[in-house]
Protein 1
Amino acid sequence: MSGPGFSHDLRQRQTQSLVLAPQLRQSLKILQVAALDLRSVIQEELQANPTLEELPMEGESEQPDEGETPAGDAEEGPEGESATADAATSSEETDTREEMDFSKEFEILGKIDEDWRDHMASAGGTQQHTAEDAEKRQHFFDSLVSETSLQEHLMQQVALDELAPPVLEALRQLIGNLDDRGFLAQPPSDVALQTGLPYDTVLEALKLLQSFDPPGIGSQTLAECLLAQLTTRGRGESLAARMLRDHFDLLSRRRIPELARKLGAAPDDIQAAIEEIGKLDPAPGRRFAEDNNRVVVPDVVVEKDGDEWKIHLNSDYIPRLRISSTYRELIAKGTLGKGERDYLRERIRSGKFLIDSIEQRQRTIERITREIIKAQTPFFEQGVSQLRPLTMTQIADIVGVHETTVSRAIANKYMKTPHGVFEFKYFFTTGYQAESGASVSNTSVKEMLADLVTLEDRAAPLSDQELVAKLQEKGIALARRTVAKYREELGILPSNLRRDYK
């Protein structure tokens, strides 16, 4: 009896797969992050791309480098060489701008999301869990321990020293004044005034705090923090330390030619020092357990000016970037080898794409905000009770992008309005149609429900059925179970528990 036979053959099979280019992934990331997080994303690219440099914020004066021209005038290089350099990047730049229209990719992404959810829904519920599994799971949760906070880590080090009571009290006050980065939130003089401790004692405690682990803790500025880390490594007199100590403003804007001139160093040495600084920790306190409370910074401020609503995009946390003319001129001179020239051109294209992505992000947020204002004008005029039902699909159709683009653009973002600060997602809500034909959002219905309970007679509170009748008088037809659900979501007790028996 012969065994089973085996054979090898070649077959062609055509399949579709979604592959996002690195630049497209970067655009999606920039579109999705909040204003506070965007700066760190851009700073990472600044560290990785030597052709990018940061301009001063608006209102700050800038002195151009000798022989350096603004980025917009860089095309006028010697003997038309720069025109060649620009021609080498113009086609790629056109391709880059075309890549910015990624609505097709979003359609595929949306389909993948739906398929994945369907798969998880069908896969779930079939797995059997025994009592032993439940016991193991509970043991796992019981074994979890909380991470050590920055304050706990520092107080453990305080306990190792025998300190005079005033210095110990000053140390405790200073540790309590550290922000999540590990920086001192108030100057020592303010700490001394608020606590009544001698200023010299506070300074002595600060010096001790700055000797603790992690290096850089208790600093008052970023430059001081990074310099402390270099000093701990025995690099306190290095070129990197001199840049931090004497020319931090130029360093933060990556003005390599001017740094080289002022420090008397070669540009390559300046670049190496910048890379050394880039490996330091700009926020040594964040490696510890983070506070769950987040600072909310509005990405957009909406204000009324006369009869018109004005939109102000928050650009305070977004660095102003440009392509360094130094590297443009290096390409234009034609003295670089092919490998160096290709590398710089690729970095320049990447830098231009980053700048375009930031501009595209701001334009998209502004357009979506403008359409939200049009759709929710009654809310902006009168308040929460006038919020209308609105879907992302409606806004996407008007703006001319895919629904997933709107979803990413509003993620983690907040809008400041005359009625408070709201997450962008707050304005997208389902709703009901009143008897008058007007649409009413479920958020507005909850607001009406809360108002009815606030105004009720405490001796005879309204039952859920009576609340249904009251809403019916306002033209809102809801089932009793829906009213009960909304009441519970609002944290309102049933009528028998709201009764005042006085």
Protein 2
Amino acid sequence: MARIGVRLENDPQLSPQDFREMATLAESRGYEMVWVPEGAGRDSLTQLTFLAAHTERIKLATGILPIYYRTPMLTAMSAAGLGTLSQGRFVLGLGVGHPPSVEGAHGIPFQRPLTRMRETITIVRRLLRGEPVTYDGQVFNTAGSAGLGAAAPAEPVPVYVAALGPQMLELAGELADGVLLNWPAARHLEPAIQHLRRGAAKAGRDPAEIDIAGYVRVAVAADESALTEARASLQLQIARYAGNAFYRNFFQDTGFAREMAAADAAMQRGDSQAAANAISREMQDQVAIVGRPEECRAEIEKRRALGLQLPVVAPFTVGDARESYQQVINAFGE
């Protein structure tokens, strides 16, 4: 089976038991990895611990763990714990998040994200190898030697970096085991991968060492009525992301300036439906997949051919959340 992952979102319609059922369904259908994001609501680490206890083979990834809320030491401690509890199945996905969450919700200044990410990866990797770490950096300084000692995991913990822009993509190429893309437009994959390779070249690494994963929003629609409903749901979701300047700028940079200008103007008027209507069919088809099962599978294969090595299907809710997830997971499983 070709590599495939699934993202389990913090959807209020999904209970912890639903999460368990979706993860075990994905495992039974041959999925390689479950990714659990963290933004609002339940944190990703406790949910992945729960899933580790109810699965046997599937890998379990934070998608992503924000680095501003946790020190490198605490991040390494959590990764060591989940790595051991899952018997080597844990994958540490790290990201910087974005200013509205970091500053607004947590009250932490969003400063020097690239430097913070570089230092976090460096310290966490050394700790997970069981090394004592004394570090004198621009963001982090440990006066005494830090270490995990016997708690360091027996199996290596892969580190993936969530990256949107060129600089973070190149940093992922320098330091990470993999990159996690978000909302990757099909036409943006090639330039994103070029930045990743440029970072690898700077570090003298073989670009083939770096796994390329990416969230691809997917809805499976059985008929025209479901297709129309799914596209309307997708437009609303993209418009909500466009309300965040971080993502709005990203979408502009990947070729959707017209859609972002119209959506932003509508949001300024307080008209969320007009903002959704501004999301063109072209943009929908570039950043997401909506269709019948065979159409969705064909679109995923197109993205594989463009360099997306690990597509991570991110089901979005159309009607009933549980049913939406089941349909997507079954569409791509063995």
